[in-house]
UniProtKB/TrEMBL annotation:
NCBIfam families: RsbA_anti_sig (NF041045). GO terms for molecular function: protein serine/threonine kinase activity. It holds the Pfam family HATPase_c_2. Signal peptide: none annotated. Residues 197-306 form the Histidine kinase/HSP90-like ATPase domain. Keywords: Kinase, Serine/threonine-protein kinase, Transferase. It comes from the Bacteria. This is Sensor histidine kinase.
């Protein structure tokens, strides 16, 4: 039986208490898709990949979650490109379990936001996403957030609408209530003025290298910051500043648009239309950086970009 062509996201949280419960639910999801001719990706830990391989002979594209869930923006973009490549009938099925352990509170908050904004990023896409949550191992706040960011929740093999589900924009806005921390003591800054972007790029390259970020990673940060600075001089307040410092193993870069305004909690999370000639900047910035925060503050808009120093 082949499924008819369809669009529209289905996004469910799978609450499980044990590995056998996870395997049973994931295998049912995979095999139901195979019966309908719908392909499946499983982005989970290496251990769970082996468990699924042992439990089903269905054709599945397995991907190690450790190399996939690297940053919220890059992961969102990678999933979006994969869904856009789907040309078959029915939906592309995705079993995707984000990595929560070892994350800082800031990272956890942004991965929760990722789960919320996915509802809008993929709203019209032919995708069925099943997100497993280990209720016996994960902190209560992460499990509770899953019910807020997924329209449907599967518990004990039964799917139901989530009474706690929140509008993605409102959930994202709640993530922005935490104020940005001030720059560190080693901060270096440079004004952004019309005609001064070449100087900004050189300044950031030199300061990034000085602080231990080099090669492609440095180039990615310079490209991202240049996009934000270009928005300042072409679309924002036309004047601002860039500042850079280190913080707990991260290189942090702020681009401040003095006098600019951007009251949009979804900025950079929604891909621009395919033929759009503008509006790619914030989407690109989120793809290139490990973590991005945007705040609309009294002194202007701050785009804060983080890159891990290894």
């Amino acid at each position: 039986m082949r499924a008819p062509a369809m669009t529209g996201l289905i996004h469910k949280a799978l609450m499980y208490e044990s590995e056998p419960e996870f395997v049973a639910a994931a295998v049912n999801f995979i095999q139901d898709g195979e019966a309908l001719g719908e392909p499946t990706m499983a982005v989970v830990s290496r251990r769970k990949i082996e468990m699924l391989r042992a439990a089903t002979t269905a054709t599945v594209e397995y991907i190690d979650a450790e190399g996939w869930y690297t940053s919220p923006g890059a992961t969102l973009g990678a999933y979006y490109r994969r869904v856009q490549q789907h040309r078959g009938p029915g939906r592309l099925r995705l079993v995707g379990e984000p990595i929560w352990t070892g994350r800082s509170p800031l990272q956890v908050r942004e991965w929760k936001r990722y789960e919320a904004v996915a509802n809008l990023t993929f709203a019209s896409c032919p995708a069925w996403i099943l997100c497993p949550y280990d209720t016996g191992a994960l902190p209560d706040d992460i499990v509770a957030a899953a019910s807020c960011t997924h329209p449907d929740v599967v518990v004990g093999g039964v799917s139901h609408r989530s009474a706690a589900y929140q509008d993605p924009a409102e959930f994202a806005r709640s993530c922005d209530r935490t104020p940005l921390a001030p720059p560190g003591a080693d901060v270096a800054a440079l004004p952004i003025i019309p005609g001064g972007l070449t100087r900004v790029r050189g300044f950031l390259a030199a300061e990034s290298t000085l602080r231990g970020l080099g090669g492609d990673r440095m180039e990615d940060l310079v490209i991202a910051a240049n996009e934000a600075a270009t928005n300042v001089v072409e679309h924002g307040g036309r004047r601002g500043r860039v500042r850079i410092w280190t913080d707990h193993g991260d290189l942090v870069c702020d681009v401040v648009d003095e006098g600019g305004r951007l009251d949009d909690p979804l900025a950079g999370h929604l891909p621009p239309p395919p033929r759009a000639t503008s509006g790619h900047g914030l989407w690109l910035i989120r793809q290139l950086c490990d973590l991005v925060e945007i705040r609309d503050e009294p002194g202007g808009v701050i785009v804060r970009m983080r890159m891990h120093l290894s």
